[in-house]
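Field log, afternoon session.

UNIT: design team B
ACTIVITY: writing a sequence onto a fixed backbone
BACKBONE:
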């Protein structure tokens, strides 16, 4: 994008509705957005200046100390002066105010509208770490070796590239089909699920045709893994059975988002089910040893 001259947003007559915080937190890179309260005035030795407003943000901090939503602040004393004649290009770095270790950097271009309310337009070239909600660590653990492929799909989804996101997510599930089914078998064995269900899941692992393998496994899910009463494997099978060439990019984007959400929820439920079983086994072992100790006294 050329930022030498101001670019009008889609509805230039409308009053800007987004604040700087809204823009930085929620808007993906690659578009010009009208912003209210984009700047504020300061006094300098040369007179009054208008500088970019860098408000506190609420972002996810992945550090071990935080691992959740935290306030981020721009701790730099550097001021980025804006005007209404041309775009100003600059970086803004935010630091987690809790752990004070994790940082988020934005690459921006901004221009004022010339109005007294300090509204204007901002373009986000990019951000590091990349835009989008964090990928749950449990999901990363579930897909294992295909972490980078999944993250490529996530970047495509963030940028609105539906076909790319769909293809990457499908590849991850195809490659890690046996790993996912293996985790489901562990749960079935621990809860002593019917032998025929376990046999079906093992047969699905041996099946080399991806679509047929998912179709075989869809009805063999333990109840603890069902999502609102639906088999996650069946949901994934329904989404992935669609031919990418028969869909629009918008349809692929919607399907890709659904695949990611279901896969993430499945990873959470698998982890929780194995954790619950481990805690139950530990509790039973403790009670049995406690009872045995009492009888020997």
């Amino acid at each position: 994008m050329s930022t030498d001259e101001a670019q009008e947003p889609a509805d230039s007559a409308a009053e800007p509705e987004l604040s700087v915080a809204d823009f930085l937190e929620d808007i993906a890179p690659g578009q010009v957005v009208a912003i209210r309260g984009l700047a504020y005035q300061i006094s300098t030795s040369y007179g009054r200046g208008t500088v970019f407003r860098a408000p506190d943000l609420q972002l996810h901090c992945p550090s071990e100390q935080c691992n959740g939503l935290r306030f981020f602040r721009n701790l730099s004393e550097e001021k980025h002066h804006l005007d209404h004649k041309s775009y100003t290009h600059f970086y803004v770095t935010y630091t987690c105010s809790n752990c004070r270790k994790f940082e988020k950097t934005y690459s921006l271009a901004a221009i004022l509208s010339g109005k007294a309310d300090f509204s204007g337009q901002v373009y986000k070239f990019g951000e590091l770490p990349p835009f989008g909600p964090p990928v749950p660590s449990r999901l990363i653990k579930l897909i294992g070796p295909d972490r980078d492929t999944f993250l490529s799909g996530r970047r495509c989804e963030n940028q609105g590239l539906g076909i790319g996101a769909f293809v990457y997510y499908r590849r991850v599930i195809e490659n890690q089909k046996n790993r996912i089914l293996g985790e489901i078998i562990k749960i079935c064995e621990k809860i002593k699920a019917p032998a025929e269900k376990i046999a079906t899941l093992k047969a699905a692992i041996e099946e080399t045709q991806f679509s047929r393998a998912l179709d075989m496994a869809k009805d063999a899910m333990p109840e603890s893994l069902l999502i609102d009463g639906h088999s996650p494997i069946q949901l994934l099978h329904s989404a992935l059975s669609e031919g990418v060439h028969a869909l629009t990019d918008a349809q692929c984007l919607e399907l890709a988002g659904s695949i990611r959400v279901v896969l993430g929820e499945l990873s959470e439920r698998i982890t929780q089910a194995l954790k619950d079983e481990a805690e139950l086994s530990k509790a039973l072992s403790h009670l049995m040893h406690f009872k045995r100790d009492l009888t020997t006294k």
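LOG NOTE: The chain has a mean pLDDT of 86.
NEXT ACTIVITY: expression trials, pending approval
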